[in-house]
Every structure is written in structure tokens, then in C-alpha cells.
């Protein structure tokens, strides 16, 4: 565990529950607390709905959401006196049958031992009859008054995740998660030898990492309030971030129209007024773009931030980002954004 202690971010440790070896799990958790000063929470079991007959955790009556709820209640109640209120509950992939909303009432007083709730959301599960619907998944967060975590999220399956389009998805998904009161997003990095979702390591730094860097620049260290400026139905998304003084500091426009590299690339003009935009003057902008939505850095595709900014194999920024000038006239700020592209405007 010691290599994890040097990471800058906080760690959520997922430990086994299906073998029903509570003493071993407790020993591992105590070791984690001794070793990891950055330990945030502990999740007991990954996607327990997939536990199969024959696993020691499964009672004679069989496995069901109710059986798992009773199991999570039992483990939290037994371990919390030693470990504290550090648990991340849930870890489900398949709502609504297996869901945070269903689990919470089953926990009874053990809900006081829960630090966060986790749900897994793989976007490709929206195909084939399943549905990954972030707003409905998260709508209970205000009722529970506990923090909601997307314990595993991923930008599509193999052949989708490395694309520039997936990088754009990261931008929009992170912002929608914030608006839906999600406290943390854990993006699946895959595993050795089967790394369909990797942002780095298998080849070079992939396009999804670019998206994470771009949306981080938009949110910034001074961002305190996020507002969506569209009604959620058009393919053009617009967001504004405000500082602690209540002033808008940046705008983001995302054109989600799909461009596959063939034909003419369409574009839209989006205009803003009011909300701190001056009557006249000049602002600057940074553009997140690629040759097309299917572009992959590992296959020679060009993906850039600010015209020339890229990342090397160690995720370090290389090249030069150049901001564009955006004119303001008559109190109107207008920008042009191509299909499969995003633009960040600094106010």
C-alpha cells in the first residue's frame, strides 16, 4: 500500500467481501489506516450484484438486494467501532434493482457509519436495453444528505474510450456530475493487459486526459458556482463558472454535433450578453479541438488545447497554448465553435 501514500489525491480502498472473511478485511483496513495518510474511505465489495452462488457471503436463502443490504449493514456495524465512520456504501452497476436509493433504507442506524455512497456508471451500458441516466441515478442525494460518488465511470468501451470524442464527453460529463451533486468521479483506468479505458500508460497520453485537463482549467481554483446556460436539449451546451464574489469568470461552449471527418465540418455561433460581459472590449479564449471525433492520439490523430498544447507520455504539458481574441461589441460576446469541439472563454 505504501506507493499509494505518495499520491497527491485522496484514496478510496475497495476490499473484498464475497469471501466473508471479516477478520482478514479488518486487518487490511487497519493496515491501510496506518499506511495511508490520504485514505478517504473504504468500500466493501465491488459490484456485489455479480456475486455468484457458492461464494461464502451468500446466505442459504440466496443473493438479492435485500440480502446484500443486510450484509452491508452487518459489516458496517461490526467494523465501525474499530475503523470509524469511513465506509463507502453501494458500489452497484445495475440500477434500479441494485441501487443506492434502495440500499439506504436498509442500512438503518449503520447509515451513520457511511461517509459516501457509490454507484458505477458505464456509458456503453446504455446500449442493449440498459440505461445509464445520471440525473435519475443521483436525484436522491438531497434526500439522503450524504455525498454521492460515481465509483466507476468510463467513456465507452474498447475503441471508443481513446477517441477525441471521449475527451469531449469527459468535459460535459464532469460538469453534469457537478450539477447533479456528485462529490467525486472515479474514471476506470482498466488493468494490465486489458486497458480499453486507459488514459495513459499503454501507448501515450490519450484524448480523455486532454478533456480532464481542459475541464479542470475551466473550473479553476477560483470556481465556486457552476451554472448551465442552456436547457439541456440542444446539441450546444453552455456553462458559466462564478467565483466567490459571485462574478462570472469563465464560459464554456461545447458543440456536441458529431463530426467523423467526412464532408464539411459544421459550426455554430453562440452569443452571450449580461452577467458581467462589458459593453465593448476584447476577451480571450482557449479551444479544445481535434481532427474529428474519432481521432486517437495513439494512432497519430491530432488533438490540441489552445492550438498547440499537447501532453507527452508522462502526462506533462508540452507545446504552446495560444489564446484567441474574442471581441465584445454592443454588450454582445459571440464565439464560433465547430462540431465536435469545445471553447473556453476567459471573462
UniProtKB/TrEMBL annotation:
Signal peptide range equals none
All copies of the Beta-glucuronidase C-terminal domain together span 239-344
Query: One Pfam match, by short name?
Result: Glyco_hydro_79C
Which Gene3D superfamilies does the UniProt record give?
A: Glycosidases
What InterPro entries does this protein map onto? Answer: GH79_Enzymes, GlcAase_C
Q: What is this protein called?
A: Beta-glucuronidase C-terminal domain-containing protein
Q: Which organism is it from?
A: Pterulicium gracile
Amino acid at each position: 500500500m505504501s506507493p499509494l501514500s505518495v499520491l497527491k489525491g485522496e484514496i478510496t480502498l475497495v476490499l473484498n467481501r464475497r469471501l466473508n472473511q471479516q477478520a482478514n478485511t479488518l486487518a487490511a483496513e487497519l493496515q491501510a489506516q496506518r499506511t495511508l495518510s490520504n485514505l478517504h474511505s473504504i468500500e466493501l465489495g465491488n459490484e456485489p450484484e455479480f456475486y455468484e452462488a457458492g461464494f461464502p457471503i451468500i446466505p442459504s436463502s440466496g443473493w438479492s438486494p435485500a440480502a446484500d443490504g443486510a450484509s452491508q449493514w452487518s459489516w458496517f456495524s461490526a467494523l465501525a467501532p474499530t475503523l470509524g465512520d469511513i465506509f463507502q456504501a453501494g458500489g452497484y452497476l445495475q440500477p434500479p434493482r441494485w441501487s443506492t436509493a434502495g440500499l439506504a433504507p436498509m442500512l438503518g442506524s449503520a447509515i451513520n457509519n457511511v461517509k459516501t455512497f457509490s454507484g458505477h456508471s458505464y456509458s456503453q451500458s446504455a446500449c442493449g436495453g440498459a440505461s445509464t441516466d445520471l440525473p435519475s441515478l443521483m436525484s436522491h442525494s438531497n434526500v439522503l444528505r450524504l455525498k454521492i460518488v460515481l465509483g466507476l465511470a468510463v467513456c465507452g468501451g474498447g475503441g471508443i474510450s481513446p477517441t477525441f470524442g471521449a475527451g469531449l464527453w469527459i468535459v460535459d460529463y464532469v460538469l453534469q456530475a457537478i450539477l447533479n451533486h456528485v462529490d467525486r468521479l472515479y474514471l476506470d483506468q482498466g488493468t494490465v493487459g486489458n486497458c480499453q479505458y486507459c488514459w495513459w500508460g499503454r501507448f501515450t497520453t490519450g484524448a480523455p486526459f486532454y478533456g480532464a485537463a481542459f475541464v479542470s482549467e475551466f473550473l479553476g481554483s477560483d470556481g465556486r458556482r457552476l451554472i448551465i446556460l442552456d436547457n439541456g436539449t440542444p446539441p450546444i451546451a453552455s456553462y458559466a463558472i462564478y467565483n466567490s464574489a459571485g462574478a462570472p469568470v469563465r464560459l464554456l461552449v461545447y458543440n456536441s454535433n458529431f463530426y467523423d471527418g467526412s464532408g464539411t465540418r459544421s459550426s455554430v455561433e453562440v452569443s452571450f450578453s449580461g452577467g458581467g460581459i462589458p459593453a465593448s472590449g476584447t476577451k480571450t479564449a482557449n479551444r479544445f479541438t481535434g481532427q474529428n471525433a474519432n481521432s486517437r492520439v495513439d494512432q497519430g490523430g491530432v488533438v490540441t488545447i489552445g492550438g498547440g498544447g499537447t501532453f507527452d507520455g508522462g502526462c506533462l504539458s508540452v507545446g504552446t497554448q495560444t489564446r484567441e481574441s474574442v471581441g465584445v461589441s454592443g454588450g454582445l460576446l459571440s464565439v464560433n465553435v465547430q462540431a465536435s469541439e469545445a471553447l473556453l472563454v476567459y471573462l
